[in-house]
From TrEMBL:
Record-level Gene Ontology MF annotations: agmatinase activity; metal ion binding
Transmembrane parts of this sequence: none
CDD domains: Agmatinase_PAH
Name listed for the protein in its UniProt record: Agmatinase
Highest rank taxon of the organism: Eukaryota
The keyword Hydrolase is assigned to this record: yes
PANTHER family for this protein: ARGINASE/AGMATINASE, GUANIDINO ACID HYDROLASE, MITOCHONDRIAL
BP GO annotations: putrescine biosynthetic process from arginine, via agmatine
Species annotation: Agrocybe pediades
InterPro entries in UniProt: Ureohydrolase (IPR006035), Ureohydrolase_dom_sf (IPR023696), Ureohydrolase_Mn_BS (IPR020855)
PROSITE patterns: ARGINASE_1 (PS01053), ARGINASE_2 (PS51409)
One Pfam family in the UniProt entry: Arginase
Family listed: Belongs to the arginase family. Agmatinase subfamily.
Keywords annotated in UniProt: Hydrolase, Metal-binding
Lineage: Eukaryota, Fungi, Dikarya, Basidiomycota, Agaricomycotina
C-alpha cells in the first residue's frame, strides 16, 4: 500500500512539499509519501462525524434512490399502515399495445425525469404554489408487480392494487379542508393517486376502482387517439378485447364513465365518420389538435370546464398528445400534436374541478432522446399535484423582473 501511495502521490502534496523546502533543495518524494500515509492512518480520533460537519445526507439531482421527485418511497401495498393523501403509483404494464411496446419502462423513465424536482424547490411562477408544502402528504408508493404473461391477471392486479390504496385512510393535516368526501358515495375522505403507466389500458382497472367509491366518472382525456373503439382486428377472445384502444368503450359498457367526458388533442386516422358517432355514444366530445389554432387556449379550457361541470373527474394524459418532435418516446406517435407549453397552460386552466385522480401513460423510453419525453412527463405530474391543490386556475401575478 505504501508503494502505491508513493507512486500516486498527489500534485497538491508535492507542491506542499516544495514549499517546505528552501530554494534549490531537492524534493524528497519518499518523505512526502510517508507523511501523507502517516496522517491518513494516525490513531487520532475523528474530529467530527459527517452529520456534525456537513449535516443531512441530501441527495443530488443525479444521486440517491429513484423515487419521484426524491419523495419518501414506500411499498404501500405491503405496508398497510402507511397513510398518505396523494400517492405516486407505477403501473408497468404494456402487453395490450397495438404498435410499439416498451411502456412498461415508463414509470422508471418518469421518475428519472423528475430527478431535478424536489419538495424544497417546487414553487413555480406559473402556479404560484409549491404542492409539497400545502398540507397534504405525498409519497411514492412504488410499482404494482403486474404479470407480464397474463393480461387478465394483470388487469385484476391493477384493480386490486388501486382499490387497496384508494381505500387507505388519508393522512391529512389538522385544519385542511376535505376534498373527496364531498364526492364519495360513502361520505369519507379518500386519497388520490397519480398513476405512471404503462400503456393506456391501465385506465380500465382504475375506472373500475374509482366507480366503487364515486359512481360514474367524467374523464378528461388528452390523447392523439380516441381509445373508444369497440374492437380491433384479430380480437377473438373476451380478454383480447381489452387493449389500449378499446378500454373507454369497455368502461362505458360497464357503466363506469359519465356521458359528459371529453377528449383533447385528437388527430389520429379513423376508419370513417362512424368512429366519431361511436365515440359520441360512449359519452365523449372531441377537441381536435387543430382546434387550438382555431379557438385558442382560453376557449379550449372553457370548453372542457363547461363539459365537465361539477362531476367527479379523472384526468388521463397520453404522452402522444404532444407532438413527437417534443416527446418521441411513445408507442403510437402521430405528427402534428400540441406543444408541451400549450398543454401545461390548459392543465393550469382546469384547476378547481373535482379531480379524483390522474395518470400519465404511454411513455416508452426506448424511443427517447436525451430523456426529453421522461422530463416532460415528470413535469406534467408536477402540474397534476399543483392542480390537485388549487381551488381555481392561477391568476397572473406581478413578480420582480416580470411584466
Amino acid at each position: 500500500m505504501y508503494a502505491k501511495l508513493k507512486t500516486f502521490i498527489t500534485v497538491s502534496a508535492v507542491l506542499s512539499n516544495c514549499r517546505a523546502h528552501k530554494p534549490g533543495v531537492g524534493i524528497d518524494f519518499d518523505h512526502a509519501a510517508q507523511s501523507i500515509f502517516d496522517d491518513q492512518h494516525s490513531n487520532q480520533p475523528l474530529d467530527k462525524t459527517w452529520l456534525e460537519k456537513y449535516g443531512a445526507q441530501i441527495d443530488h439531482p443525479f444521486s440517491g434512490p429513484l423515487s419521484f421527485s426524491h419523495l419518501p418511497y414506500f411499498k404501500c401495498l405491503e405496508n398497510e399502515n402507511e397513510s398518505f393523501d396523494i400517492a405516486i403509483l407505477g403501473m408497468p404494464f404494456d402487453t395490450a399495445v397495438t404498435y410499439r411496446p416498451g411502456a412498461r419502462f415508463g414509470p422508471y423513465a418518469i421518475r428519472s425525469g423528475s430527478r431535478r424536482q424536489r419538495d424544497l424547490r417546487s414553487y413555480t411562477l406559473a402556479w404560484s404554489n409549491n404542492p409539497y408544502v400545502m398540507g397534504q402528504k405525498i409519497i411514492d408508493c412504488g410499482d404494482i408487480p403486474v404479470s407480464p404473461f397474463d393480461n387478465a391477471l394483470a388487469v385484476d392486479q391493477m384493480e386490486v392494487a388501486y382499490s387497496t390504496l384508494l381505500n387507505r385512510s388519508p393522512a391529512r393535516e389538522e385544519g385542511v379542508q376535505p376534498i373527496t368526501s364531498l364526492l364519495a358515495k360513502d361520505g369519507l375522505e379518500h386519497p388520490r393517486i397519480v398513476s405512471l403507466g404503462g400503456d393506456h389500458t391501465i385506465v380500465l382497472p382504475i375506472l373500475r376502482s374509482l366507480y366503487k367509491v364515486y359512481g360514474p366518472i367524467s374523464v378528461i382525456h388528452f390523447d392523439a387517439h380516441l381509445d373508444t373503439w369497440a374492437i380491433y382486428p384479430g380480437q377473438t377472445t373476451e380478454q383480447s378485447r381489452v387493449t389500449h384502444g378499446t378500454f373507454f368503450y369497455l368502461a362505458q359498457q360497464e357503466g363506469l364513465i359519465a356521458n359528459n367526458s371529453i377528449h383533447g388533442g385528437i388527430r389520429c386516422k379513423l376508419g370513417g365518420i362512424e368512429d366519431l358517432s361511436n365515440d359520441e355514444s360512449v359519452g365523449f366530445q372531441v377537441i381536435s389538435t387543430d382546434d387550438i389554432d382555431d379557438f385558442g387556449i382560453p376557449k379550449i379550457i372553457s370548453m372542457i370546464r363547461q363539459r365537465i361541470g361539477d362531476s367527479p373527474v379523472y384526468l388521463s394524459l397520453d404522452i402522444d398528445v404532444i407532438d413527437p418532435g417534443l416527446a418521441p418516446a411513445t408507442g403510437t406517435p402521430e405528427a402534428g400534436g400540441w406543444t408541451t407549453r400549450e398543454l401545461k397552460r390548459i392543465i393550469r386552466g382546469l384547476a378547481g374541478l373535482n379531480f379524483v385522480g390522474a395518470d400519465i401513460v404511454e411513455v416508452a423510453p426506448a424511443y427517447d432522446n436525451a430523456e426529453i419525453t421522461g422530463i416532460a412527463a415528470a413535469d406534467f405530474v408536477h402540474d397534476f399535484l399543483s392542480m390537485f391543490m388549487s381551488k381555481e386556475p392561477p391568476k397572473k401575478q406581478a413578480h420582480h423582473g416580470r411584466l
